[in-house]
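Possible regression after last week's pipeline update?

I re-ran a chain I had predicted before the update to compare outputs. Posting the input and the new output here so someone can diff against the archived version. Not blocking, just want to make sure nothing changed silently.
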Amino acid sequence: MRLGFVGGWGHHYLRGLMDDAEAVAFAGDGRDDAAARQRCDDAADARWFDDVTQLLDAFRPDVVNVGCVYAHNAPVIAACLQRGIPVVSDKPIAATWAQLDELRALCDGHLSRRIITEMDWRCHASLRAARGAVASGKGGEEVRMSAKPPYGFGTRAEWNGNRADFGGMIPWVASHALDAVMFATSKPVVRTFGTRGNLAHRAFDEMEDHTISVVELANGARGVVHADFLRPAAAATHGDDRLRIAGSEGVIEIRDGRCRLTTNRAAERDITEQAPSLKPARALYDAAVHGEETTFSTAHSLELAAVLLAARDAADEMRMIDVPRPHRSAS
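New output (post-update):
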């Protein structure tokens, strides 16, 4: 396999396959090339290209892993798709509705043009067990969900304070929890309301440090997703992802990396081991290159992108917004 990497800010999960690759190459995103160059220097025998076009046309990768300054992934993804190169990308794959429309158009009718978003929680045994429990009806009909990804603020580049570069906390952080709700329930988000703010990190004036999104699923169930950069520096871990799905017959809950089930007939029990975990690098690669759709797919990625943009708009405007399907043209 020939692996291409663009940018220096994404998770770049396909780095987990570099030892098995025939060749590896990196390029910058044109905004912080130094971060990408450092990743290239840290990788044994990796080639560096001065720009993305050179990497795509001269190196000819089998797949490209995109991880740019957060709000600038879409142009690189589009360049790859135009050449028929599958993409694994960090979120958001689109920072505007116009970008999402372009990606949809590039993929429409072209099964080999694939965009896979790096939502690694889908590979964890805990979330896979929750999905299995919901699918088998162990909690009954889903009624209400709550999910949260609180993270530590740490040290952040100055561009995080610029919405045009950061893209918003909902597409970058709350995306994990919104995707977890969608993946666990296998139901789309149809409308959303939200709010946002920054009270503790005002030097980053265009960056939220907390968001709250209320979502409605296709079956009428409702959920609350809240995200923040307020996890204390002395906390044992950087994050504390949680998910709770309350149903008509029981509750499925993920906390501390374990999935637990409590029903009207049985006390709480750990069901994590009922589902195997996956290696994100391999699962993402197989979805992008081979079209394996069990865990990831282009359709999932485009649907999630629309939910994230709608949720961000709802929080910006503090109003209820329907998630548009399948197209909406706006800047």
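Follow-up from reviewer: compared with the archived run. Residues 327-331 have pLDDT under 50 and may be disordered. Marking as no regression found.
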